[in-house]
Design brief:
The protein has no helices and seven strands. By secondary structure, the protein is mostly beta strands. β4 and β5 form a beta hairpin. The mean pLDDT is about 95.
Length: about 70
Amino acid sequence: KTPFKVEAPDAKKVTLSGSFNEWNKDGIVLGKQEDGTWAIELDLKPGDYEYKFLADGDWDVLNKENRKIIVP
């Protein structure tokens, strides 16, 4: 499993979008943690991926540039 986590204490909904889900901005909803972070674990095949977190549908509030992850 590949963990994804982001700090967004004021968000009402956080989603994850990336090259692993064809940039579907509504496809992966993270769960809010007690400390104000949002998290999820995904089963990703090995590869290089780009992604972004969306806070309440906004692409840029949590990350201006695409983030990158390599799954071994």
